[in-house]
Amino acid sequence: MAVNTKAYQEINGELQSKQVTLVAVSKTKPVAEIQELYELGQRDFGENYVQELAEKQLVLPNDIRWHFIGHLQSNKVKYIAPYVHLIHGVDSYKLLLEIDKQARKFDRVIHCLLQIHVAQEETKFGFNELELMEAMDAIHKYKLLNELKNVEVSGLMGMASFTEDKEQVRKEFKYLKLLFDHCASLPWNTGFNTLSMGMSSDYQIAIEEGSTLVRVGSLLFGSRQQ
């Protein structure tokens, strides 16, 4: 199989020692490879596509914590609402309200992360700083009205620029951590404890800058080095 067992054990051991959660990005990977990582002890898996996630969760162990890490359309929320553990890419009020609506149907609370646009690429989704502050204010007002009871905003997620310039990546992660710390310090904002930043190419920088969760795929599922 294509799972790189040695890399998984090394990365997982490193992250556990730093109390950072490893999400294994399993998009497009076959069920057999996910099962192999599961048997090594991995429980958090990330998927980008709703249909693929729906199909996989039907046949894989029910104690897997499924993370949705792709761009989620409001009309697709209902398909993952019964079982999704954490939605990483909430980038609009509309989506947050739809997640709350669908979670209510299943009498559960869905945890979410607000996606922040910190990269230089315009193709990335997410709130800018001003929009984030407006979103936090709106969430507070909803909570005061006893609304949004079925969604919990647990933190922030962001993706750095795809570049060889490590200092640019570090700068973007530092900025995201500053925004996270500000939001976490708001007196009403309890349970705001997850900062999802860092992927295969930059997770070590992300950890140095305060990430609590990294999303790693190619290092785990890539071909073994002989």
Characterise this structure.
With 226 residues, this protein is an alpha/beta fold. It is built from 9 helices and 8 strands. An 8-stranded parallel sheet has the order 7-6-5-4-3-2-1-8. Strand 1 (21-25), helix 2 and strand 2 (44-47) form a beta-alpha-beta unit. The radius of gyration is 17 Å and the shape is globular. The model has no long low-confidence stretch (mean pLDDT 94). Keywords: Pyridoxal phosphate.
Q: How would you sum up this structure in a few lines?
A:
By secondary structure, the protein is an alpha/beta fold. Helix content is 42%, strand content 18%.
State the assembly state of the protein chains: single chain
Q: Indicate the structural class.
A: alpha/beta
Q: Evaluate the radius of gyration.
A: 17 Å
Strand content: 15-25%
Q: Enter the CATH topology name.
A: TIM Barrel
Unreliable runs, pLDDT <50, ≥5 residues?
none
Sketch the major β-sheet: 8 strands, parallel
Looking at CATH, the homologous superfamily is: Alanine racemase
Mind telling me which CATH architecture this is? Answer: Alpha-Beta Barrel
Instruction: Note the gap between the termini.
Output: 13 Å
Which strand order does the major sheet show?
7-6-5-4-3-2-1-8
Instruction: Give the CATH class.
Output: Alpha Beta
Label this structure with key terms.
PLP-binding_barrel; pyridoxal phosphate; Pyridoxal phosphate homeostasis protein; 18% strand; TIM Barrel; 9 helices; 226 residues; eight-stranded parallel beta sheet; pyridoxal phosphate binding; 42% helix
